[in-house]
Amino acid sequence: MIGPSDSGKTAIANFLSESINVEEVNSARPTQGVRIVEFALSHLNINEKQCKVDIEMWDCSGDHRFESCWPAFRLRVQGVILVCSSNTANVAARELELLYNYFVSQAKLSPKQCVVFYNCTDDQEDIESLNLSSTFSKISQVAVNLKSGGNRLKIDFSNFVTSILQTL
């Protein structure tokens, strides 16, 4: 999971791993380098079989001073979650393009192994306002609102993990 600083990556990672509840998502602290969150997803349907999957999610800092760590972050990556928000919309298109090229294209991942989460604070916000390039036309783009749509996020994340596992 990577994206511009202050886009809510840690809040999403904590929510998905059930490390916090929805009321705690506003307490932001910049991640220093990377933080690894481990948790399990149960009841995934992979090729017609119910599975439990162990997840190791790397919550990567969006601060470019940690860019020298990117080769380690990319090593054996199986899926990439690009995160941006209304807070980062002014730099998101350029930043996501850079991150996509490094973590998806250069790692030779398929579009099914990548997703864009647009972390919304308002139900009226629309992912279309990001004006992402045609690079993202084959990439799933999901509007995320932890306060009002947390259950939807868990479903979208499970679908993303299922897509990755079916690609491998």
Description:
Helix 3 links the parallel strand 3 (80-85) and strand 4 (114-119). Helix 1 crosses helix 4 (146-167). The longest helix has 22 residues, at 146-167. The strands form two sheets. A three-stranded parallel beta sheet has the order 3-4-5, sandwiched between helices. A two-stranded antiparallel sheet has the order 1-2. The mean pLDDT is 87. It is built from four helices and five strands, in the order αββαβαββα. It has 168 residues and is α/β, with parallel strands linked by helices. The two termini are 19 Å apart. It has helices spanning 9-16, 70-74, 89-105, 146-167; strands spanning 34-46, 49-60, 80-85, 114-119, 140-144.
Largest sheet composition? 3 strands, parallel
Beta percentage is 25-35%
Structural class: alpha/beta
Q: What pattern of helices and strands is seen along the backbone? A: HEEHEHEEH
Strand line-up in the sheet with most strands: 3-4-5
Total strand count, please? Answer: 5
Number of distinct helices: 4
Quaternary structure classification = single chain
